[in-house]
Design goal:
Layout: E1 14-18, E2 23-27, E3 32-39, E4 42-47, E5 54-59, H1 62-76
Antiparallel strand pairs: 1-2, 2-5, 3-4, 4-5
Length: 86
Amino acid sequence: MVKSTVKHQENKAVVKYYADTETLCISNGRPMGEGDDVCKDVVAFFDRENPSEVVGLTIECAEEVLKPFVDAILAKHGVTEVATNG
């Protein structure tokens, strides 16, 4: 089980999305060490220097996992149409 440590960090979020694998990676920019499964398709990565601190998350199948949340946020703000590239 992943132990969480909450500390205020001044690091900026680094968010990368890989469309070919539908993988979303979120980190605070600090070097990542070992990872541990949190649940299906979600991995938490720990700080290299302090392995008790989570510094990043990877969500596989992100479009499927996050779609309900994105839809709810868009609906809350009255967005009915989303522009797509193409």
